[in-house]
Design goal:
By secondary structure, the chain is of the alpha/beta class. It contains eleven helices and twelve strands. Helix 1 links the parallel strand 1 and strand 2. It is globular, with a radius of gyration of 20 Å. Bound molecules: adenosine-5'-triphosphate and magnesium ion. One of its GO terms (molecular function) is magnesium ion binding.
């Protein structure tokens, strides 16, 4: 039986509430699908730790994770710690240090969930946003000039490399070829005149190698509008770091709640562990009440199983999520129900 070594980072707020739910689901599936999981939990890697010790994780944090097969993360964030500290103190070093250049965010409108968008009929919306995860607009390059004077300015440079763009496009086209055979590229080459035309050229070059994939490109402003007006019209959407960040949060809202949305930070070459985390943050407004929606964390665990070579187990999880939502009224508060995190998890386990 294959054993996978999993690093658990519960983090802050609702992270430590939703991660145990994901773990219970994983432990249920192992025996049936012929794998086992051993866990190492990094309970204090969090904003709380940052407040106490000035760092989210130890200096040798990445080395502690390096020999694991995957990382499952709850959430990091704290009202007393600025977002950029929690991002740059943990998430971004892991994403970049382990070359997790694909951020995969599947979106589905499940039967039984009410989308705020009228056109998003349950069962019809099933798309994946592939976001470039390590370069692009979120660079540290740039600076401030003429501080305090009327001429003061801030310059932020976006860095797009041929290697960095090509590898994420390659992943997205392969995924599109395996799924519905359709791909949309997010661009803005009418306004961003250096990086985005480069992105578009590389998309066209990659597309030539995937004749079976029907592709197009849309400017990000029009694309955002279409995500709301006709989300069922998309299959695989590939986007730069910033555009993908915005589109995937938008799509998660279309799906009915940010509490549902999962994410995978993938190192497709498997040189390093990949990291799986719900899209939502620490949700300090509901933390400690046991009412967080665990679907995002549980679905993220399913993405992890898929990555570890257990697609049938992953499908069991998403099927069970779909069944609870379609066939029962057990749902957490964000989806209009009264179930607790534990109630929902029990109901789901009952179907596995
Ligand atoms: P952070 O700073 O960690 O990103 P945040 O408050 O900015 O936290 P989220 O944690 O994503 O962002 O929360 C946004 C809103 O969505 C909050 O009102 C929160 O309660 C709600 N929310 C997020 N995740 C869940 C969940 N799993 N279940 C229920 N509600 C959620
Ligand atoms: Mg946030």
């Amino acid at each position: 039986m294959t054993n996978h070594r999993i690093a658990l980072i519960p983090g802050d707020g609702i992270g430590p509430e939703v991660l145990p739910a994901a773990r219970r689901v994983l432990d249920r599936l192992g025996p049936r699908h012929g794998f086992s999981l051993s866990y190492t939990s990094y309970d204090d890697w969090s904003c709380e730790r940052h407040l106490r010790e000035g760092a989210m994780m130890p200096a040798d944090g990445l080395d502690q994770l390096r020999d694991k097969d995957a990382i499952l993360l709850g959430a990091v964030g704290h009202p007393g710690v600025p977002d950029h500290v929690s991002l740059w103190g943990l998430l971004i070093p892991i994403r970049r240090g382990f070359r997790q250049y694909v951020n995969l965010r599947p979106i589905r409108v499940f039967d039984g969930v009410e989308s705020p968008v009228r056109g998003a009929r349950p069962g019809e919306v099933d798309l994946v946003v592939v976001r470039e995860n390590v370069e692009g607009e979120y660079s540290q390059s740039g600076g401030r000039l003429h501080s305090g004077s009327p001429e003061e300015m801030a310059v932020q440079e976006a860095v797009f490399t041929r290697t960095g763009v090509t590898r994420v496009l390659d992943y997205a086209f392969r995924l599109a070829a395996r799924r519905g055979g359709r791909l949309t590229s997010a661009t803005k080459s009418n306004g961003i005149v250096h990086t985005m035309p480069f992105w578009d050229e590389l998309v066209a070059a990659r597309a030539a190698r995937f004749p079976g994939v029907d592709w197009d490109q849309e400017h990000i402003d029009a694309l955002a509008a279409k995500f709301v007006l006709d989300p069922a019209g998309f299959d695989v959407v590939v986007a730069s770091n910033l555009f993908g960040d915005i589109l995937s949060d938008l799509a998660a809202a279309v799906a009915g709640s940010i509490g549902i949305a999962p994410a995978a930070n993938l190192n497709p070459e498997r040189e390093f562990p990949s990291m799986f985390e719900p899209v939502h943050g620490s949700a300090p407004d509901i933390a400690g009440q046991g009412v967080a929606n665990p679907i995002g964390a549980i679905w993220s665990a399913a993405l992890m199983l898929d990555h570890l070579g257990h697609p049938a187990a992953a499908k069991d999880v998403t099927d069970a999520i779909a069944t609870v939502l379609a066939k029962t009224d057990v749902r957490t508060r964000d989806l209009g129900g009264t179930a607790t995190t534990a109630d929902f998890t029990e109901t789901l386990l009952g179907l596995l």
